[in-house]
Amino acid sequence: MEWEERLRDRDAWAIGDRCSVARTLDLLSTKTVFLAVRECFYGTTRFEDFVTRIGTSAPAVSRALRQLESAGIVVRVPYREPGKRVRDEYRLTEAGEDLLPVFLSLVQWGDKHLQDGRPPLSFVEAGTGRPARVSVTADPVREKESGEIEIRANRGPRGQRSGSA
């Protein structure tokens, strides 16, 4: 990347706490917080399922979901099963859905640089089966929404299906 001329002297200006990268990292500050976002994209909505699928303590998941809720990334939606008390599900907001390219970028990078062989999951366009990829472009492209992405399990090294990412 290149800086425009008036910004090339990095010591002459500072963005400090207005830096979008720093603010985003403050929001997604722990592994549990980001894995809660992952689980939302994977369709997880209920607290107990977040705890099981993230593999950490209930208090840690509770803190992560509260943090995401206060930032407007998720919203709680009440539901009631017959004969039970009202409980809450967690759903991504529009701001949460806007994290899809961030999430897929991390998956894409991890698949390329951290997986030995074939990654456990593939993300494809639901209608066509074409791989969903994130790229930097100046071309106008219609972004896909999470509902337009299908997650598929790839075959593991011995033919078994794999399913974690």
Q: Give the helix tally.
A: 6
Specify the CATH homologous superfamily of the largest domain: Winged helix-like DNA-binding domain superfamily/Winged helix DNA-binding domain
Major β-sheet strand ordering: 1-2
Q: CATH fold name of the largest domain, please?
A: Arc Repressor Mutant, subunit A
How are helices and strands ordered from N to C? Answer: HHHHEEHHEE
General description of the model:
By secondary structure, this protein is α+β, with helices and mostly antiparallel strands. It has two domains: 79 residues, Winged helix-like DNA-binding domain superfamily/Winged helix DNA-binding domain (Arc Repressor Mutant, subunit A, Orthogonal Bundle); 55 residues, no CATH class. Helices cover 35% and strands 15% of the residues. A two-stranded antiparallel sheet has the order 1-2. Helix 2 crosses helix 4. The protein is globular. The chain starts with 19 loop residues before the first helix and ends in a 12-residue tail after the last strand. The C terminus is likely disordered.
Brief characterization of the structure:
With 165 residues, this protein is an alpha+beta fold.
What is the topological layout?
Elements: H1 20-27, H2 31-41, H3 47-54, H4 58-70, E1 74-80, E2 86-92, H5 94-97, H6 100-113, E3 121-125, E4 149-153
Antiparallel strand pairs: 1-2, 3-4
Helix pairs in contact: 2-4
Structural features:
2 domains; Arc Repressor Mutant, subunit A; 4 strands; 6 helices; two-stranded antiparallel ribbon; single chain
